[in-house]
Amino acid sequence: MSLFAFGINHHTAPLAVRERVSFVPEKVAEALQQLVAHDEISEAVVVSTCNRTDLICSLSAGNGESALEWFRNYHGLDATELNPYLYRYSEREAAAHLIRVASGLDSMILGEPQILGQVKAAYRQAHAAGSVGRELGKLFQHSFSIAKQIRTDTAIGNSPVSVAFAAVTLARQIFGDLKAHSALLIGAGETIELAARHLRKVGLGRLIIANRTLEHAHELAAEFDGYAIALDEIPGHLAEADIVIASTHSQVPLLHFEDAQAAVGTRKHRPVFMVDIAVPRNIDPRIDSLEDVYLYTVDDLKEVIDENLRSRKAAARKAEEIVEVQTGHLMALLENLDAGESIRCYRDAAVQARDEVLARAQRRLARGEAAETVLDYLAETLTNRLIHTPTTWLREGGAADLGSANLETSNNNGEEQE
Questions:
Q1: C-alpha dihedral sign at 340, 119, 104, 6
Q2: Tens digits of residue pLDDT in 320-371
Q3: What is the 8-class DSSP label of residue 162?
Q4: How far is CA 75 from CA 5, 20, 69, 374, in A?
Q5: Which helix (H) or strand (E) segment is 259 a member of?
Q6: Distance of alpha carbon 210 from alpha carbon 237, whole angstroms
Q7: Is residue 9 within a helix (H) or strand (E), and if so which, with residue range?
């Protein structure tokens, strides 16, 4: 087995490219099952968020090209469209990459805590889809433990820095005091919940939460003294909102140009600040052309976020040291897994050899051969068959796999024909 990881993220690809390779959550299980159906791919997990799409695989053969080809075909892209933005890692580098992702060290917002929950959710989904086995199981479980250690042993998560925090910070820069303003939040997931918390903390006047599942909107609205609406009610409430923050898994825009245009007219030139955190985007990009609308995407928040990262950078250096040490420990654990599998295979084959030689010896006794002769045959033949594989492995410097080496020996190794 070998580890292979590849993907794109906010460092390597613009939003327009990340949109094209994101996975619809409801279809991830089916996609994983397609991927591991390839002979060269034993296990796989997909991590797809607004800032990244990562695939972590355990390969039974090959160098990962079959996984890359599947990825391109699945999203309808050719190599020239994808390769300029793609990164790939093997073995130790692949393990280190996953640890860095889970720890928030590879996030747009350094050390942000939401990514660990997203990676855990991706792992659970892959496990439910049957695409996780022993190798990725150990890899992810230990990565989660290391990510927790990093957050415990360093100050990387001490400052309140997140996409939601950055959005609220920018809103305050535009409007100042938010007590007289209203916000419309589209979605009811973790990012929207964080935005609601930050808005309440700074004293927002009125909160509206829109979601596809109205029950979820009501639950979140009740927690923050807000008002819940369904998605199809957004046009009727849009003119009330000074701030709009959207973050859902919808594959199509939920806020349309015509509705925004009508709302702007009703607002009579009062500015509206919109943040589209989703990938694919939830807000029609054309809305940015409307007068008095300030539309930001997740990429536009980077400048605001960068200003709030200084206190985390020293902690990140310590975290990288932890990643380096723990990656070594993790790789040793995975290598022991492979050794354990080889030993198990060798023991199974040894038992099979014992049973076969014993059966032959019993048949020779039944034919009337002398017991002493048969015992000599049994001892010599069984010894030769049992030591053939480990001596071959030692002779080749450990290059052979004990689990795949052939335990059968020729007559030259001492076994006679019956």
A1: positive
A2: 888 888 888 888 877 776 555 566 666 777 778 788 878 888 888 888 888 8
A3: S
A4: 17, 7, 10, 65
A5: helix 257-267
A6: 10
A7: strand 2-9
Q: Are 245 and 186 in contact (CB under 8 A)?
A: yes
pTM equals: 0.64
Q: Which two tokens stand for residue 172?
A: 């305050």
Domains and CATH numbers, the chain: 2-156 (3.30.460.30), 163-304 (3.40.50.720), 337-413 (no CATH)
Is there a contact between 185 and 207 (Cβ–Cβ < 8 Å)? yes
Three-state secondary structure call for residue 202: coil
3-state secondary structure string across 64-112: CHHHHHHHHHHHCCCHHHHHHHCEEEEHHHHHHHHHHHHHCCCCCCCCC
Residues β-bridged to residue 210: 186, 229
Catalytic residue among 5, 21, 44, 50: 50
> How far is residue 368's CA from residue 370's CA, in Å, rounded to a whole number?
6
Q: Is 22 helix (H, G, I), strand (E, B) or coil?
A: coil
70's CB contacts (< 8 A; 6+ apart) are: 34, 35, 38, 41
What's the one-letter identity of residue 36? Answer: V
Quick one: which of 56, 53, 54 has its CA closest to 15? 53
Cβ atoms within 10 Å of 227's Cβ, excluding its own: 16
Q: What is the largest CA-CA distance in the chain?
A: 110
Whether residue 50 lies in the annotated active site: yes
Beta strand spans in 232-318 (E) = 243-246, 272-276, 293-297
pLDDT tens readout for residues 215-259: 999 999 999 999 999 999 999 999 999 999 999 999 999 999 999
Rounded Cα–Cα distance for residues 301 and 305 (Å)? 6
d(CA 200, CA 205): 8
Q: How far is CA 345 from CA 165, 348, 404, in A?
A: 53, 5, 8
Q: CB count, 10 Å around CB of 213?
A: 11
